[in-house]
Amino acid sequence: MKELSSNTRIPLSNGITATVKQKLGEGGQGSVYRVEINGNDYALKVYNKYPSRAFVRNLEDNVKKGAPTKHFLWPLWTVDSSEMFGYVMDIRPKEYVDFSKFLVAKARFASWSAMINASIQITYAFRELHRKGLSYQDLNDGNFFFNPTTGDVLICDNDNVCPPSTNLGIKGKCRYMAPEVVIGNNKPNNLSDYFSLSVVLFMLFFNNHPFDGKRVADVPCLNDAIERNVYGENPIFIYDPNKANNRPVRGIHTNVIIRWPLFPDFFRQAFIEAFSEDVLHDPNKRKSDNEWLRILTQLRSQTITHTCGNETFVDLDKTFTLCFNCQKSIEKPLMLTIGKQRIALYPKMKVYANQTSSFDDMFTVTSEVIINKNNPNIWGLMNRTQDKWKAVYPNGKELEIKPNAGLPIYKDVEIQFSSHIKGNIQ
Amino acid sequence: MFAFHVIEKGSSHILTNKPCQDYALSHYTKEYAIGIVADGHGSDRYFRSDKGSKFAAEVTMIILQEFLASTKNMTRLPNGDWQKQIAASIISRWNDKIEQDKNGNTFTEDELGLLKDADKARAESDAWQFVYGTTLIAVVRTRECFFGLHIGDGKCVAIDADGNPSQPIPWDDDCFLNQTTSLCDSDAINRFRFVYMTENLPVAAFVASDGVDDTYTSDERLHEFYLTMWRMLQENAETAINEIQSFLPKMSEQGSHDDISIAGVLFDKGKESHNGRFSKFINSLFA
Amino acid sequence: MNPLEAVEIARRQMTLFFIVDTSGSMNGEKIAAVNTAIREVLPEIADISSENADAQIKVACLQFASDVQWLFKPADVEGLTWTDLNAGGMTVMGEAFNELNKKLSRKEFLDSPTGNFAPVLFLMSDGQPTDEYRKALDSLRENRWFKVAIRVAIAIGDDADKNILEEFTGNSELVLTAHTPETLKQMIRFVSVTSSKIGSRSSGIGVGGGSANPEEESKQAEFAEQVKEFKDENADLEALSDGF
After folding, report:
1. What are the b/e assignments for A58-81, b being 16+ CB within 10 Å?
2. What are the chain C neighbours of B255 within 8 Å (beta carbons)?
């Protein structure tokens, strides 16, 4: 495939023409160029070799279906001529950094909130992809870009996204492939995506692969056979409660050693389960995207900004938690329980639409905790929606809470967000 | 292929009746030569660093040999960051060894008595590893390549086929004056520096603890030291090694006063193939 | 002969830096006292150096008034003859800090960490800086060599800014105040001799990786103790305020 020079005009499938500006990069499959279409910048990916018909058809299908969410850098239009095949997608803004840089500490999230936001966006994006009847099949650290300040996510390399029953020849990247795919028993599908997602989430939070512990460290030379064993045939989670032979090693796995104890029990337990022997070998037992979303949004509801200025997690099952920045003790705050969600009622805590309504929207803020201007000992819960809420007090008294009004936070108050969604302050 | 090593207790340690905290090992076959030195940290604080350096050298030798055996018939390099993987193995197995030693020989009152309060508290907690702290330098010369790894101070000097000396392993600026990074550091894996060469391979490479470079205090003099040593070894290895060993006490006394350990790997296409001086010396070693 | 014996084993170096305020207000008794004191102490330091198998002591002098100048760059103390400093002009301490920061590096005066012991930085001033010194001092305090150096200062008279001097030394114990020429001379002698002795001593090894080095700290600590003792023993001298 010849290199495209600047100012070459490329006709697109929608009839418009793109003008090549410059080459942005090159990968195993093809090259990416910056192009201009009607005055705006886009990215054009061109394959080195003309792909299979199945691949081309699938890509055209994806263009028609459209991106599952705004997080995907999705094919917008294709380029199909005798000389080349490729597609145009939105260009990635400069502030987004590749996941692999985070993994080697060349980039960092500005806060735990940003990290959690990233995890929620990734999981949400994949849930929507799966709901659209597609599977990713090649989830790995090379597909993600994050805005380090906000945690906003962009997902790229969507070339191989296709229905679970199809496979365009891709297996995935070692270490992210589900055990059954590594061994070769199965082709990638949604269930193997769930596995890859759990690995990506673990790596996001702990900067360490879930199976990289002493077992791997002790081997001077990794080869394909050993990798197959460690990541496929016989994987052992570094914190598996029943097998202690693959624990993180001092001096090597510093990040996970420091971070693991910081997280609340329920969160760590989720990973212990996800990587337990049972679940590893039985794809049907894996946590789905939705289950991860519940876990991640719960974590978000326990992430507070302490008076010392830094973020920390409160444990809602203990009478007090130590702030891991300043080491001061934080008394367990009152919490708002809505269904299975428990939200720590601490200043700056936000509550989201998926918690206070039946909308499946985990990004819109519907309420937040603020400090009373006149009395810093009183905290209030504000109504940030357009609807009226009702607060019911233990003595039976009822109070209407209009949009942008708030109520002081007291124990045993019930808040009715709607006719069928109620929360209790406990 | 040839490799050797020498160790000498420093004049200051002789005076204060401290053990030698340096350790060195070397090994060679027809296919490769390995040289390793490890320098246990000096002050009272690091009261088991003599063991630390010994364990470091020993596990490194085993790991390098395992590595060379498993890559013997490989036509390409191992997956991923293979040098970091070797370093990870060394860290992992070294931590095992010191833990075994600590559990088998709990810290005595005398040993703990050497520490200041804050350090004593650390030694009695989970963060006791520092008492075994050591640096480590290891180099391997095979027919096709030369590679090395280094944590902490000390220096590696290599001599190319034209007789030009250089220091091929990058330096870590955190090793400054008396400060050094260490195998006991909690992020040791990130403090390792590496070199890997497949062309213009050195004909000789020497690794040594800072007892040597603190004696010769300038690159010029240090390189002259090793060039001289190399010439001596080429003349007659057996005599050279004896002369080097006998010179070390004087060197320590006049120079750094510190323990000295040096290991060298040599590759001389010419002399290797026939029953020359090298093989005579090899035989005498294993007699 | 063993060929290795022919390779020179040179001593490591320890440099004592005199950083002297030569502004207009130093003119007269003050600068005369400084000149006499240093002239007299150099032979003593030379003795310490020649008796020291480990270290070669070098001396350097940076003066600052309306500009900065090296009276002499690091030179072997044995055989060094002192040229009197002249006073006159402003007090560009900030520039002095910048110049010191520049020269305390591998590429300049301190060629290699293995070749050098931590230096001694001896600052003497009688007044306020007349230039922007804040950034310069903050920057200097980040310099590796500065951090490990033995730092000491003498405030000459009461107009000197002791706060700045304390920031320079990092320890209020290491700022002395001289009120008379006699005291000044005694202090210069004491500081020069003691810091040279302690600074040129070989010390043990420490694990740092960027953090403070216990061994170097102990040299500073030991020096601070000796300075404190000196201050205590000479308290009556310090108390005399009719002098400068």
Report:
1. bbbebbeeebbbebbbbbbbbbbe
2. 9
